[in-house]
Amino acid sequence: MTVALTPPETSPAPVSDLVARDAREFGAYARTGGWAFGLKVARSVRPGGQGADETPKVSAKEFAELAGCSPERVMRYYKAWDRAADDGLVPHFEALTPGQEVELPDPDVWLSYYVSRSSAGSERGTAIAEAAEAEGIRPTKALEVAENPTALRAAILADPATARAARQALLDRVREDPDLQAELARDVVRTDELKKAVAGESRAADRVGYVRQIAESGQIRTPAGQTVDAPADLRQEAERHLSLIDELDDDEDAGEWAAEAYDTMKSLVVEAVEADPGLRVQERRTKFYSSLQKATKVFEELTFDDVPEFYEDDMVTQLEELQRAVAVCIESLRGARGNHPEG
Fold first, then answer.
1. Which of 139, 156, 190 is where one domain is finished?
2. Which of 92, 114, 136 is the last residue of a domain?
3. Mean of all residue pLDDT scores within the chain
4. Number of folded domains in the chain?
5. Quick check: helix, strand or coil at residue 63?
6. Biggest alpha carbon distance in the chain?
């Protein structure tokens, strides 16, 4: 018969005092958050105005040397405790003595008093903290991002949602920052892809503006430049196209919709002009005067002071042809005047 032997029970190895101390301190921090370390500073660092002979406490500099950290870090805990004391959450420094234990506030409250970034005390840090509070987030988060632009760049490059948030933030800021406006404008004109994109968006915006003007004002501008009342059906068509464009989501491309609406309205305007005999005649009269004025202006701008230096026979030939064309035009107008009811 085989007898099973039960191994003798072994007692656990003794725990190192150093390990036990680390575990206790970790547990204390896990339960109380930063308040535990804030208390260590508050009960050991003497407040301003109190002399070394009045208290066993030490200066922030001495405490930092004993702790092996910077005085600035000690003072961040000091200031956090001071703000909490002003709000009545913890005792003031003068009421605390080295080694004293007190009941600590909820750990989650600590972050609303403690700012872990040294930049928080600067004008820039204050502005960032205020903006963070306005957005409903902890200042520490915003300050951490501000101090690590490389991480911010990586997040923008890798994550479309972060990129969209950054874009919106820049748009909000650029409205009140002329220097940033100029910098962004220079970036756009120096980047071919951005120039093309801006040109495309500008063209789409102009086209939407054309349709919107018809829908809202009820007037059209003819190809010759006349401004007249739009027929009811044409205005309704403009309103229909505009409503489709306005219903697009922000992330949808309005370019194709704008182009279709613009081309449709342009065609309808031409048809409206041709369908109205009186408007059609007025349109042609306006076009004629416009062309005549342009031709007159171009001819008046010709100068002949230096003609001997660049004279060519072809110049005379072209002017003679122009002269004959002008003569034919004059005769046609005179003939039309004779046939005109009022001529």
1. 190
2. 114
3. 83
4. 4
5. helix
6. 143
Domain span holding position 178? 123-190
Same domain for 269 and 294, yes or no, is no
| Token pair listed for 14 | 């003794």
**Residue 11 belongs to a domain:** no
Looking at the predicted structure, is the pLDDT value of residue 131 above 90?
no
- Print burial letters for 183-222: b (CB count within 10 Å at least 16), e (below 16): eeeeeeeeeeeeeeeeeeeeebeebbebbbbbbeeeebeb
- Burial (0-12, 13-18, 19+ Cβ within 10 Å), 34: buried
Asked whether the predicted pLDDT for residue 191 surpasses 60, the reply is yes
Q: What does the pLDDT look like over 72-83, one tens digit per residue?
A: 888 888 888 988
**142 in the same domain as 105:** no
- R_g (Cα) of the chain, nearest Å: 41
Model confidence, pTM: 0.49
Question: For the segment 113-124, what is each residue's pLDDT rounded down to a tens digit?
Answer: 776 555 555 677
Same domain, 223 and 266: yes
